[in-house]
Amino acid sequence: MDFREVMESAKKIEGFKCRVCGQCNGKVCKGEIPGVGGKGSGSGFIRNFDKLNDIKLNMDTIYAAEKVDTSIELFGKKFQFPIFAAPIGGLVACYGEKLTDYEYSKAIVDGCKEAGIVGFTGDGVKDEFFLNPVKAIEENGGWGIPTIKPWRKDEVIERLRAAEKAGVAAVAMDIDAAGLAILAMAGKPVSPKSVEELKEIIGATHLPFIIKGIMTVKGALKALEAGAYGIVISNHGGRVLDHTPATVEVLPEIVKAVQGRMKIFIDGGIRTGLDVLKVLALGADGVLIGRPYAVAAYGGGAEGVAAYTKKLGAELAEGMVMTGCNSLKDIHEDIIFKG
């Protein structure tokens, strides 16, 4: 199965809310929440894609070539690519009834493991939206990273214990979900967190803790102060605040401010291996990708997820060859066209 077959299969799903566009750029689905679009005008989602697409690469094929190494070590584990499936929860409301959160997460974590990477899983209004994905991770030998919404501290810690029991390598919080419209409509108590609250939460677990939803230097430094292992530069796919900058626009200044003191991941509009190469050149350690992984899971299950991952990895490797990079350590800003 290749990704074209996966997309064709997804298009045939009755009631599937994603249109499976040729370019997943947010323009057709703007404002569709619940659904897969960006909030309001949809500009956050659209800008993520467009600004990344505007970046061009310098070609260089005069160098001492070696076997291309796309691998990376994180959380004490080695992964085949610096690419990870982003967390998505509440699947029925946003994508349709074909897959439950457990079935979706099972496809994600199994397919990612097959392709040599790891998938993040989601959370939602009902406890089962977190616990069922964690069950899928536990069944997969702990190979997955659960993501917790910014609930009350006691509820967050309860979820941390479930993650620890499942033997996961790390855990995340998508802190920007404090403004997620679907949760607000459901009356679920989520809220922003202070540095002190985050310190308490991070201090309550031995697991590496990733804070997702950082869009400013100020926010990154607060996450660093709180003791985060890493951050995900993310505007939640443009789903929580309209008229945000693109994630790739704020990446360089955050990288400069953090100075290697914690890991930096990024999501938002990343669709190809060349997109991955671009953000690595601008200083990211790895990427998260959301909507296309949902299409992969719905259209092809674990096999579709693995196929999409391998496609991305092959594109990244090819891009590295054509820009003079034998390994991820060779990827620097000088491969980005400045004209």
Summary keywords:
globular, alpha/beta, 339 residues
Provide a concise account of the structure shown.
The chain has 12 helices and 10 strands. The protein has 339 residues and is α/β, with parallel strands linked by helices.
Helix segment tally: 12
Uncertain segments of ≥5 residues (pLDDT<50)? none
Percent helix among the residues? Answer: 40-55%
| Topology-level CATH name | TIM Barrel
Report the biggest beta sheet as strand number plus sense, adding barrel if it closes: 8 strands, parallel
Order of helices and strands: HHEEEHHEHEHEHHEHEHEHEH
What is the CATH architecture term? Alpha-Beta Barrel
**Distance between termini?**
39 Å
Global Rg:
19 Å
Shape: globular
Per CATH, the superfamily is Aldolase class I
What is the percentage of strand-forming residues? Answer: 5-15%
Total number of β-strand segments? 10
Whole-number count of domains: 1
Text of the CATH class: Alpha Beta
The overall pLDDT, averaged over residues, is 96
Strand order of the largest sheet: 3-10-9-8-7-6-5-4
**Content-based structural category:** alpha/beta
